[in-house]
Amino acid sequence: MKALLIHLNGQRFCLAGLPNGGVEASIGLTEEETNGRYSMAVYGVELPTERVSLWPSTALEIGDEVKITVVEVEAADPPEAVPRQS
User: pTM of the full predicted structure?
Assistant: First the structure.
């Protein structure tokens, strides 16, 4: 399966992939007058059930380096959470 191998500051962060679905890594930057907030989230959607899977998320700081590599693997890290569908 295709997966995203993510490193944060040179350290392996996670390997996110789903055999039937897609995954995304999102970097969010919010600028405020007195403070900025920076974060990274990794999530996926399994098809056809549309079940959402969440891998670890983390706060980022100025100077952090995120490297994302598309890889082919037999298995990925299990999601940290799979929220219930309502």
Answer: 0.86
